[in-house]
Amino acid sequence: MKKFKFGDIKIKKADPQHLTDKLLLLNLYITQGLTLFIGLIWILLQKRNPFDILNFPGSDKFLLWGLGLAGIMLIVDFLLTHIVPEESMDDGGINDLLFGRRPLWHIIIIAAMVAICEELLFRGAIQYAFGPYWTSILFAVIHVRYLRHWIPTGWVFLSSYGLGYIYIHTGTLWAPILCHFLIDLFSGLVIRYRRES
């Protein structure tokens, strides 16, 4: 029997053009499932109840904060795409592959799943432990496809900080979930229908 050595593992850069649609979706669902699992375990280790964190608020104030931040973020994103050179905002083509030919119902499901899973982990668990600044640094780092360019990396950091701010201000996770959902939904729809036209 051959002995396994960690030094034999070789990591190669993945080329998005070699990803099949099935593999891309499988990767998305597995990573979001892991994100949800880690978030729930972390919250439980903090001796907190995930159902309390996801308790729907009695006030509709969270709607204003979620919609307001989403509107600001979409305007800034629009300005960045028209001011900054396209290659500086490149994510390696992953978003085009993910949303380019996806039906509307699937874009809605992806946006909702990502918003809930990521906000539960980052705002619900990590921000509780480390605060919005360090959470936003980690959030920017895990969006590794943007790390080659400082503008999208900075924008992901600022977006995350904004999500953390509205979570603190409203006291409910549903404000950043709503904002995150709207941003991903709008971005997915723009990619989907821009390509079609």
Automatic annotation (TrEMBL):
Domain called CAAX prenyl protease 2/Lysostaphin resistance protein A-like: residue spans: 103-186
Pfam families assigned: Rce1-like
Transmembrane intervals: 23-44, 64-84, 104-121, 166-191
Keyword presence, Lipid metabolism: no
Annotated keywords: Membrane, Transmembrane, Transmembrane helix
Keyword RNA-binding attributed: no
Highest taxon above the source species: Bacteria
Name this polypeptide is given: CAAX prenyl protease 2/Lysostaphin resistance protein A-like domain-containing protein
